[in-house]
């Protein structure tokens, strides 16, 4: 009784251990390793195709060449260049399957010229054909030619992994990627095809592509008498939205507050010509604010041993021989009188 129990236990471990490890394999990674192996193999084929024996073309050499073409020597040369020494996954897969490459090379190549299909899909079974997924290579939703109806990606597509569920592209949703997301409308649709286009920026939901097809207007937009959504000019509606020394800039669906030009004290637009009044150190001249040159307006501004240096909105008094440590600045002429 005890004995048969332990035999059962033992046999079930032996039975299920390999099966269990199959299911924990990362087929996505294995498939991409396999794809790289095959790509490298094809490159190796190309590289060795033109190999000749000293450049001659004698009959003997021709014969020798065609012998080389199918030779074990050529296969070995290709296999040697297949993996970088640093790639564990590649070397592991190659070591485990060297026999398969030999079999293909000597016995299958003619009947099964597509190495990827023969090796990765049919022999070691880590990949599936395009549009198929999972351990048994099931067909993706929407069919293998147009997974997810061309509007998304099928989970595990082309590998032995994944569950075949669609993750839809922007604008599409639903199990089949045939429905349109919020902010999109259906421009074309039948059982197997769907084209969703983006709503006009003024719309909150729509039935077509213009501002006249909105279900509702988005924040910052309002319906005009014809029913189209048009921008609300927040700046004219409520002029006090921005701080002192800022102006309001209306944009489609919104607005922003921008700093006034430094030459302004308060403004209604960009640049010095939109000042309400001029900032200290600037004067109104031909309806724009320009710098006051304190140095020329008052030649006695600085002390005898200093010279005057005008700057935008201000000035310096500098001692010629010394550096800036000895200079004085003025934010405005009035302030300078204190120095
Ligand atoms: C669905 O529409 C597409 C695009 O217009 C078309 O190519 C396809 O044949 C249509 N299919 C059916 C079943 O009507």
Describe the structure.
With 339 residues, the chain is of the alpha+beta class. It has four domains: 21-127, no CATH class; 179-231, no CATH class; 235-291, no CATH class; 298-336, no CATH class. It has helices at residues 2-24, 27-49, 59-69, 72-80, 88-108, 115-123, 234-237, 294-297, 333-336; strands at residues 132-133, 138-139, 152-154, 166-168, 172-173, 179-180, 184-189, 194-198, 203-206, 214-217, 221-223, 229-231, 246-251, 254-259, 264-267, 275-278, 282-285, 288-291, 307-311, 314-318, 328-330. It has a three-stranded antiparallel β-sheet with strand order 19-20-21. It has a two-stranded antiparallel sheet with strand order 1-2. A two-stranded antiparallel sheet has the order 3-4. A hairpin with a 4-residue loop joins strand 1 (132-133) and strand 2 (138-139). It starts with a helix and ends with a helix. The model is unreliable at 7-22 and 330-339 (pLDDT under 50). The structure holds 2-acetamido-2-deoxy-beta-D-glucopyranose (NAG). The site of 2-acetamido-2-deoxy-beta-D-glucopyranose has 5 residues, from loops. 2-acetamido-2-deoxy-beta-D-glucopyranose binds at residues 188, 190-193. Belongs to the CRELD family.
């Amino acid at each position: 009784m005890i004995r048969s129990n332990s035999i059962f236990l033992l046999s079930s471990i032996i039975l299920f251990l390999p099966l269990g490890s199959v299911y924990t394999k990362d087929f996505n990674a294995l498939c991409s390793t396999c794809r790289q192996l095959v790509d490298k193999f094809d490159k190796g084929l190309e590289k060795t195709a033109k190999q000749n024996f000293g450049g001659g073309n004698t009959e003997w050499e021709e014969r020798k060449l065609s012998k080389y073409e199918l030779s074990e020597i050529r296969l070995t040369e290709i296999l040697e260049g297949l993996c970088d020494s640093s790639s564990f996954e590649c070397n592991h897969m190659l070591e485990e399957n060297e026999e398969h490459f030999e079999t293909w090379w000597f016995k299958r190549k003619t009947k099964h010229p597509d190495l990827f299909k023969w090796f990765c899909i049919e022999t070691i079974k880590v990949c599936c054909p395009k549009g198929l997924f999972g351990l048994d290579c099931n067909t993706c939703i929407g069919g293998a030619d147009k997974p997810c109806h061309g509007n998304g990606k099928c989970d595990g597509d082309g590998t032995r992994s994944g569950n075949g569920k669609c993750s839809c592209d922007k604008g599409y949703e639903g199990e089949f990627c045939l429905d349109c997301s919020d902010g999109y409308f259906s421009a074309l649709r039948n059982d197997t095809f769907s084209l969703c286009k983006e709503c006009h920026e003024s719309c909150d939901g729509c039935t077509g592509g213009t501002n006249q097809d909105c279900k509702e207007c988005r924040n910052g937009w309002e319906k005009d008498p014809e029913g189209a959504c048009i921008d609300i000019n927040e700046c004219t509606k409520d002029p006090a939205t921005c701080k002192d020394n800022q102006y309001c800039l209306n944009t489609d669906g919104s607005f922003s507050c921008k700093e006034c030009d430094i030459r302004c004290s308060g403004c209604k637009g960009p640049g010095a010509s939109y000042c309400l009044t001029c900032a200290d150190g600037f004067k109104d001249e031909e309806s724009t604010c320009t710098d006051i040159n304190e140095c020329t307006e008052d030649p006695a501004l600085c002390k005898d041993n200093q010279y005057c240096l005008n700057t935008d909105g201000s000035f310096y008094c500098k001692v010629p021989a010394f550096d800036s440590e000895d200079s004085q600045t003025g934010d405005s002429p009035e302030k300078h009188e204190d120095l």
